[in-house]
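I have a small job for you when you get a moment. Can you supply me with one protein entry, sequence and fold together? It will help me judge whether the discrete encoding reads sensibly. Write everything out right here, beneath this request:
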Amino acid sequence: MKLFVEFVVKLLSGFLLVVVANVYADERHVSLDWLKTVAFAGHQTDYSGVFVFQYDNRVETSRITHLAEEDSEYERIESLDGPKREIVRHHGHVWSYINHKMIQVDSQQGHGRFPSLLPKQLSALGANYQARLDGTERVAGYDTQVILFQPRDKMRYMHKIWVHTDSGLLLKAAVLGDKNQMIEQYAFTQLQIGGKIDRTWLRKTISSSLERDASNIPEADQQGAMEAAMGGTHTVSGWVADALPVGFNKTMEIQRPMRGKHAPVTQMVFSDGLSAISIFVEPNDGDEDDVDGLSSRGAVNLYHRVLDGHLITVVGEVPPRTVMQVFESVRFNGR
């Protein structure tokens, strides 16, 4: 159970921004060219700092270093509290510190991460959100422009971001509930943009990861390990959901091995451009840990239950009512 939440919190899709044509009279338009700068800033800027992730009255602190090289980028995230955790990303590959070693893991975990929440390709979301500039504030000692994304229905959350006015780097991001209460939030507390940033870890970390001896993996497990690292194989499972909120379109359907699971899991991902919903389908193995019901971690809500001999899990960065609605509409439509 917890593995799903931890996986999808990292998996869930990132923020896509849009210029909204029909806005209130007192709202200012959001420049599409400026948003393109924001989308690329997280990938093309050198920065190093400490950020906090707040959710459910909990706070997690991490240190991040990001370096942009010619035709490539490197990123290292280290936990500063709790058990030692470290993630290194390079050129679409992801390594994680597991059992005192850096192990290549699922590349899908690198999607939609703070502060690189905006994709390089922007999509029009005016049908689902109203976007407006919401003043300026200081974050970690830098001036930022605040942008608010108000959903047009009750099936999704409100999003708010704080963008550095000079570099375009995202410095803070929050998900808000119906009464504007904070559900989860990322924010830099210390930050250096540009300048002299330590690069000594690059060669040692990446080289040791790339030189991992694949021969130590039993031959029977090598294919599964490869598929896990690649994010699974594309499939058409025949499972469908009839009650997705308007604007959510399928972006991916794969079959993947997952840690702690006895058989491959089918995963379908749907996105409205700003939020994502995933549906997982697997044979019911009678695991006692698979208890029916709803659970939450910050903005991520998860519901699962056994249906027709399969364990169905719906998880997304959407309100609980949306997760429940989607779950009730899941059915097998045949291949």
User: Anything to note?
Assistant: The mean pLDDT is 79. The first helix runs from residue 2 to 11. The chain has two domains: 17-210, 232-332. The first strand starts at residue 47 and ends at 55.
